[in-house]
Specification:
Elements lengths: L1 E3 L4 E3 L16 E5 L5 E5 L35 H12 L1 H4 L30 H15 L5 H12 L5
Helix pairs in contact: 1-3, 3-4
């Protein structure tokens, strides 16, 4: 966080805001400090959805992390049914994962979980594949979302991502 005072600048190295779905963070928070000093918090606009963050994730998890909005897997067949079923079983994991189909970059979904809250996941191998990788890793005992994201990246990320 970078705080700019009347005559002094402070920086604790941790930005308060990160650019999420809009492509640019335009927010600045104003706070009144002690002795009437005015401080302005300047937003960090260096990170965008899809870029690897220090914590190993590519999104900032938000919204619901339960399966309440996931479409009923029973209406689908085969691999599609399996992927939607996985979304009902590990929604909290999928809500932390970036989906390389790019739906987050277009502002359509907040995470891989969102791909199963509508019909996006029906015909998308990337959405389904991401969920399958996550499920298989969870079944092996992996609980770290960053480790799961790295495995997803190894399969679906373009070179250099």
């Amino acid at each position: 966080m970078r705080l700019v005072g009347r005559s002094t600048e402070y920086n604790n190295g941790e930005p308060m805001f990160r650019n999420h779905k809009l492509g640019l963070a335009l927010a600045a928070a104003v706070a009144i400090g002690g002795a009437g000093a005015l401080y302005v918090q300047v937003a960090d606009t260096t990170w965008t959805v899809g870029q690897l963050r220090e914590n190993g994730l590519r999104i900032i998890p938000s919204g619901r992390s339960d399966a309440a909005a996931v479409l009923d897997p029973g209406q689908f067949r085969g691999q599609t049914r399996r992927a939607y079923r996985i979304a009902t079983q590990i929604p909290e994991v999928l809500n932390q994962l970036y989906c390389w189909c790019g739906c987050e970059n277009r502002g359509v979904h907040r995470s891989n979980l969102g791909c199963f809250e509508d019909l996006m996941g029906v015909n998308c191998d990337v959405c389904q594949g991401t969920a399958l990788i996550a499920y298989e890793m969870v079944q092996r005992g992996v609980t770290d979302a960053a480790e799961i994201q790295a495995a997803v990246d190894a399969v679906w990320a373009p070179n250099g991502a």
